[in-house]
Design goal:
The complex is a heterodimer of chains A (about 160) and B (about 190).
Chain A: E1 6-8, H1 10-26, E2 31-36, E3 41-46, H2 53-73, E4 81-85, E5 90-96, E6 99-105, H3 111-134, H4 148-153
Helix pairs in contact in A: 1-3
Chain B: E1 3-5, E2 10-18, H1 25-34, E3 45-48, E4 54-67, E5 70-78, H2 86-92, E6 98-104, H3 110-126, E7 136-141, H4 151-158, E8 165-167, H5 176-193
Parallel strand pairs in B: 2-5, 2-6, 6-7, 7-8
Antiparallel strand pairs in B: 1-2, 3-4, 4-5
Classes of the chains: A alpha+beta (about 160), B alpha/beta (about 190).
Chain lengths: ~160, ~190
């Protein structure tokens, strides 16, 4: 049995985008995005441009999963934050429940500022996501009526 | 875990290709990548060793089209097949919506297939999934080679629950899209159940 799907409603999506936009500004970051621990990108905000956010989301989740595995081997539950500092661009990832808050920044900001601002919005994002995770299909779910023909048409 | 975004009208699902070392999991993804229009897919990310063995995972997002006004996006992953990368395999199964088991049809790889399938069941269980309930397809790969086990014998040994069995030659693309279609269909059918 697979997990229950996560349903993100339009209003919730815009609320998340607003939180990310504020974080991006407060942390002087280039891009901020929210990823689920399985590697699905939920929302992003900032100078996305040509940045391949889908791949970045998947790799961020892989990164957290791998370091989480290491944490358990040494008796820790997980490492709640990860930072990778490059010559010009850096990445900070914080684990917020089942979400990852990923901030990409350059020398217009600093790791300390990004850490501080990320921590400040963590609780808010966690609470928002709890509400999302508790959501369920409406009776008029658009997927209840998916036919075999609909599915076959994807491959024709 | 399927992720449905009503704002961007997208459905995102995660498919994992599992199987013993060198069975052709990455080759499946590579073929899909090579034969799909660039606008329908993202980059093929391969975290491999210097000798092209998968170290952590391969990843490729693929957009299949629209169902009921929602874009369907499949995130395709492979696991490293080599026995000692078990910790990585477990991690990649997190949040999986559908699994393809790629079996190597060569006689000398039969034991490796059985071991890997057993490992899949065990690792799914450790993540809270049950192979008997999850969308699942068995692909019998390398059907073009000389020393292969007959399909009936492979199915008798490896088929678990009446799942679709697809004969394939991933290197030339035979059966690759049939496999993907078979698993995608089951994943979308699960959505219908809500």
């Amino acid at each position: 049995m697979a997990d229950t799907p996560i349903l993100l409603r339009e209003q919730q999506y815009h609320q998340i985008k607003a939180v990310l936009a504020r974080l991006r500004m407060d942390a002087s970051a280039k891009v901020v995005f929210l990823v689920d621990k399985d590697g699905q990108e939920i929302a992003s905000q900032g100078e996305v441009g040509n940045l391949d956010t889908t791949s970045l989301a998947s790799l961020a989740a892989g990164n957290v999963a791998a370091t989480g595995g290491m944490a358990q081997l040494i008796g820790e539950k997980e490492f709640p934050t990860l930072s990778h500092e490059g010559e010009k661009e850096s990445i900070h990832i914080s684990v917020v429940g089942r979400l990852l808050l990923v901030v990409v920044f350059d020398d217009r900001s600093s790791l300390g500022l990004v850490k501080l601002r990320s921590k400040q919005v963590s609780h808010q994002l966690a609470a928002m996501f709890e509400e999302i995770a508790a959501g369920d299909f409406d009776d008029d779910s658009p997927f209840a009526g998916i036919t075999d023909e609909d599915i076959d048409s994807l491959f024709s | 875990m399927t992720f449905i975004n009503y704002a961007s009208r997208e459905i995102n699902c995660k498919i994992v290709y599992y199987g013993p070392g060198l069975c052709g999991k990455t080759t499946n993804l590579q073929y899909i990548f090579d034969s799909t229009a660039p606008q329908a897919r993202g980059k093929l990310i391969s975290l491999a060793t210097e000798t092209d063995r998968t170290l952590f995972f391969d990843f490729m997002p693929l957009e299949l089209g629209t169902v009921r006004g929602f874009k369907t996006r499949f995130h395709l992953y492979t696991v490293p097949g080599q026995v000692f990368y078990d910790a990585s395999r477990k991690l990649i199964l997190k949040g999986v919506d559908g699994v393809v088991f790629v079996a190597d049809s060569q006689e000398e790889r039969m034991d490796a297939n059985i071991e890997s399938l057993y490992n899949l069941e065990e690792n799914l269980q450790s993540q809270g999934y049950d192979l008997m309930k999850i969308p699942y397809v068995l692909q019998l790969n390398k059907r073009d080679l000389g020393n292969i086990v007959p399909v009936e014998d492979l199915a008798a040994e490896l088929q678990r629950k009446g799942e679709p069995v697809v004969e394939a030659v991933a290197a030339t693309g035979v059966g690759v899209f049939d496999t993907l279609k078979a698993v995608a269909k089951q994943v979308l059918t699960e959505l219908r159940k809500g």
